[in-house]
Structure formats: structure tokens, C-alpha cells
Task: structure prediction
Amino acid sequence: MIAASVPVQRHPQARLLVVDRRGRIEHWARSEFVQLLQAGDLVIANDAATLPGSLSGRHMPSGRRIEVRLAGGASLALDRVKRFSAVLLGLGDFRMRTEDRPLPPAVQPGDRLALGPLRATVVRLLLHPRFIALEFDGAPGEIWEGLARHGRPIQYSHVPVPLALWDTWTPIAGPLVAFEPPSAGFVLDWNALSSLAARGVRFATITHAAGISSTGDPELDALLPFDEPYRIPASTANAISQARAQGRRVVAIGTTVVRALEHAAEFNGTVRSGHGLATQRLGASSRLRIVDAILSGTHEPGTSHYELLRAFVDDRTLGSIDQELNAHAYLTHEFGDSVFLERTAA
Result:
């Protein structure tokens, strides 16, 4: 696959590889996505907006340059923005491959970080020298102002031009809680939502703090996805119950939706509404209780997103998908093409 390098969310030539429950593969235009859905299907998307989570600055004890990429928080509450988990990088910026970035200075609990107008303290290390918990100085309003003035979207080298924050917001973006965009939702716009309604397809949302997709360190990448908070409205939980009672499909727009719904799933096939913290890693051994199909970006083997797709189809089918994606030069990463997978028939 080829990395999508132009930050266009709904490219008119975007493609969609479709895999039905029997493993049959077809190639569609992504603009035809709505035609895959049937009356009574329930489509669920993540309405999280993306934070300006990349902060350049200095490690004050050493005076060395550092980049802090915010990677998680324990809450979706907008007034609880003092503490985050974060990944540290050394000199450079998004134009350099993350894997090629120099190591950041070694940090210890109590170290101070100067990040533009913001100041923060390293609270502790989290399972890896480059993965930390930090706490910002100041009141929530001051922290939000500092993020808005100094932060920028987390970005990788496959897109060579700087991203604006709105490049990373889906058309349904709401609460400012994601660390990278829930980019499968780029496919949605108001015309698509109108078409869903016209076909009798129901639509609902959750809020899930989508985390970072890569750290540049294999050992740290093995910990992905990090724990991610989410909220499922009562209306969405009720819509899931109705769809399942009627034998209709639940279709997730993106891996974050799958992770949240399956974490909140009860053994009887219902979904708890309210707040939760997704801690699981879905893969080939996972039994999906709620989601019947997923619209997702194309993902590379070895990533946590790719592993999640193994919960929908077996490895033989996934291998065939990879061959088709490569043979037809599909584009990958957040501005790339998409796949639609139905869960394999038992």
C-alpha cells in the first residue's frame, strides 16, 4: 500500500474494499458506502474532536529540546485537563520519520518541562522511559488556552505539509478529547447522513478518546493501544438493543467504536451506557458480542488497528485482503482509502 500524502478527507476518487461475511471481496467507490447498508442497520460513529496534542519545548533540567505528544487521559471531562499520559520524542518534527527521531533526554519524576506558554511536571514513568504521566500547571482555562496557542495536531511524515487542526476533525466532531483523529469518520458528511436516513438506516454516536497510532519505538508500540476513556449515551445503548432484538446489523465506523462497544458489552449482548475506560486489545482470539461490520481505514500488518481487524475475519481472508490492497495500490493512513468488513459467518 501507498501512504496517502494529501490531507483531503473525502477524496472523490477514494476507494472501498468490501468483504462480505463469506469472505468474498469486491472493489467499490467509497462514495457508494451507503449502498452497502440496509433498512434497520445501525451505524455508530465516534464524535470525538482532536486535541492539538503535539507540544514542542524544553526539558528544563538538561535544557534539551523535546516534543511531548499527549497520549491519554483518565477522563473525558473538559475541566479535568491537568493530567495526561504522554510520549516523548527528541529533536525534529513531523517531517522526520518517527522511527528516525533521536531519543529525548532521560526524564525522572519531578522534572519540569517548558512547553511554550505551558509548564508541566513529570509525575512518573509508565512502563517505558519515553512514556510518562505529566501534570500541567494552572487552572483548566489556562491549560486550554496554552494548548490552543502552542499545540498542534500530532502528525507523521507521510503528510509533508503542516496539518491544521480542522484537517483532523471529522464532520461530526464534538467533544475535544481525541489525541489523533478517529479518521474512519472522515467518510461521513451531512449528505451521507441524509442518505442513511433516506434508506431507513439508523445513526448514533459515542465519544471515545482515540489514542496515538505510533511512537517510533517497537517496544513502546507493543503497548498500543493505550487505555482510552469513552462515553456511550443511553440513546446509543438503547438503539443497539433495538437493532439486536430486530436482528439488524450494528456497523462501526472505525476501530475506536469497536473497542468502546465491545468493552461495554454485557454477556447477554447488551451495552452499558455511561463512561468507561477501554483497556483491552482486540484480535484474532476476541469474540465480538456487539459489532457485526466495520468501516475502517486500510492498516498495515503489525499495528494494533490491523490486529483488531483479525476479530472480524480469519488470517487467510486478511491475507487475501492485503494482496488486493497492494495489487490495486490502495492508499493507507488517515487520509487514505477504506475497507468494509462483515464479521465472518460462524
